[in-house]
Amino acid sequence: MTRRSFLLPALFAAVALSGCRTFVLESHRRPIEPKLTFERTVVIVNVPEEGGSERARRVAENELAGQLAALNASPSFRLIAPEDLGDAGQIRDWATAEGFDGLVLVWFEREIVRHMPTVLLLDEIDMPARDVVRIRLNASVVSLKEDREVWTGVVEQFDPYPLTKKLPAVARIVARTLRDEGLTD
Q1: How confident is the model at residue 15 (pLDDT cuts 50, 70, 90)?
Q2: Which of 96, 99, 119, 147 could be a cystine partner for 127, CB 3.0 to 4.6 Å?
Q3: % of the chain at pLDDT higher than 90
Q4: What is the distance between the alpha carbons of residues 26 and 152, in angstroms, rounded to a whole number?
Q5: CA-to-CA distance for 7 and 62, rounded, in angstroms?
Q6: CB-CB neighbours of 6 under 10 Å
Q7: What average pLDDT does the segment 133-145 reach?
Q8: pLDDT in tens, 42-64
Q9: Measured at the alpha carbon of residue 171, what is the angle toward residues 170 and 175, in degrees to the nearest 5?
Q10: CA 10 to CA 32: how far, in whole Å?
Q11: 116 φψ region: left (φ > 0), alpha (ψ -120 to 50), beta (else)
């Protein structure tokens, strides 16, 4: 085989795999923050109300609550409807009134679409034009007892749709980052 024959499959594989990533762009932990010891934590994943997003919310909250069992985490979808979530202040007030002392919140920031033009690879082979879609989500952990944010992060998901299948990966990344940073077991 020629060198061109090896390069073409490698290029297509790299492009195909690049569309399936979830990663933390940034993460901030207070410098002297001890391990979290919440007695009762609520997990909220707030995504736009589009096709299947309530189901996606349920799947992601269940995954995140399961990953954060050490924090006695419960998914919020059993307790509050999406239209009642409101802004961050309203969520904090609601969670405090419900007796929670910890809050893990993941919310949709924006969708980013980048149009990729057709790329001519070889004389007779080209990669067609396409849109590359990603979503950016913010995440935070709040101590409701102390009324302060103890951790924040930004997560990006490439090729995020359908949300039902892709949001659990975001939940796992958030939980793994909290474990890696020593905030939970």
Answers
A1: very low
A2: 119
A3: 37
A4: 8
A5: 42
A6: 10
A7: 90
A8: 999 988 765 557 888 899 999 99
A9: 115
A10: 45
A11: beta
- Confidence at residue 52, expressed as pLDDT on a 0 to 100 scale: 58
Residue 148: pLDDT over 60: yes
**pTM (2 decimals)?**
0.78
> Could you tell me if 41 and 100 are in contact, meaning their C-beta atoms sit under 8 angstroms apart?
yes
The single residue listed with the structure tokens 């923050």 is 33
At which residue do the structure tokens 């924006």 appear? 110
Nearby residues of 24 by Cβ (< 8 Å), 6 or more positions away: 153, 154, 155, 173, 174, 177
Rounded-to-integer distance, Cα 164 and Cα 181, Å:
27
Residue 37: CB partners within 8 Å, gap ≥ 6? none
Q: Give yes or no for a contact between 44 and 108, defined as CB atoms under 8 angstroms apart.
A: no
